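Colleagues,

For the teaching module next term, I've prepared a clean inverse folding example: a structure given as tokens, and then the sequence designed for it. I'd like students to try predicting residues themselves before seeing the answer, so please don't circulate the second half yet.
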């Protein structure tokens, strides 16, 4: 079922409410929060969700005096982000992983794109720099360390601007920015995707069904991603199966035909997908795999 949300014109963006879920990842969290303090050009609200903060994360966040929510155990990214987002004070909500370091000017580049778009019916992502190649054309690759102790911050700060990319289509993953108005209207993350595999794709599909056609990865808004793989510690949900059974479209086809992920962004609004023989044969293959 689709709904239609009318986009509204936006005034100058003054800041984001930044939601960071964390799960016993203190050393990365310290790096992430320090980067926000040092490298942001705007005044933001930071909200941390503490999934079992017994590693010292809870004490650290309290010492900093920033907003937080907490749970005694890991409740997964969907519940964690939804809970933390309930404290958001700004008109724009940004979801950030705790193993990300935001490079200088990361926020102002996103704000510039909002001003250029001119309305709130959009979903934006920053561009990740990762230490090794994963085949993701939306990511810049340069190794500045794969752990907190080996992080080459000075090297990153001297080189990050040379790793900027052209804007790309298919914004989904963190840093993920969308208006709080749209977030509330679509109900945030779907908790049936807990602990969180494919929840970002589902969020994009909910935005699509609500009428959003602007999904832009901003190539000059850069964050370093350590790829610490917290997901290795959880029992994963079968997100691809859930996505197909919910939407009737394979996740990979949604990425390619709807979001046109990885293509250079040349216009603000994406066209409707071409539903040709290849499209429907892909759907049928997944129907045979997953059932109705």
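(Answer key — instructors only)
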């Amino acid at each position: 079922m689709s709904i239609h949300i009318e986009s509204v014109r936006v005034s100058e963006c003054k800041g984001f409410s930044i939601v960071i879920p964390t799960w016993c990842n203190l050393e990365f969290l310290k790096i992430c929060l320090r980067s926000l303090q040092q490298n942001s050009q705007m005044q933001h609200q930071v909200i941390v969700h503490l999934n079992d903060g017994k590693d010292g994360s809870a004490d650290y966040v309290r010492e900093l005096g920033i907003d937080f929510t907490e749970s005694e155990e890991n409740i997964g990214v969907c519940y964690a982000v939804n809970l933390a987002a309930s404290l958001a004070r700004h008109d724009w909500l940004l979801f950030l992983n705790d193993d990300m370091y935001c490079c200088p000017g990361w926020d102002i580049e996103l704000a510039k794109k909002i001003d250029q778009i001119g309305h709130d019916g959009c979903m934006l992502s920053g561009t990740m720099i990762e230490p090794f190649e994963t085949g993701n054309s939306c990511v810049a690759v340069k190794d500045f360390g794969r752990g907190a102790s080996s992080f080459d911050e000075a090297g990153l700060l001297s080189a990050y601007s040379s790793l900027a990319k052209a804007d790309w289509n298919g914004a989904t993953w963190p840093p993920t920015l969308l208006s709080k108005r749209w977030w509330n209207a679509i109900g945030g993350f779907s908790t049936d995707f807990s602990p969180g595999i494919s929840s970002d794709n589902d969020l994009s599909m909910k935005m699509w069904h609500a009428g959003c056609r602007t999904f832009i990865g901003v190539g000059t808004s850069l964050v370093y991603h350590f790829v610490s793989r917290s997901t290795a510690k959880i029992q994963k949900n079968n997100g691809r199966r859930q996505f197909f059974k919910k939407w009737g479209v394979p996740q990979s086809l949604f990425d390619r035909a709807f979001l046109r992920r990885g293509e250079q962004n040349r216009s603000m609004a994406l066209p409707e997908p071409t539903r040709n023989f290849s499209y429907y044969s892909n759907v049928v293959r997944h129907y045979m795999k997953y059932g109705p």
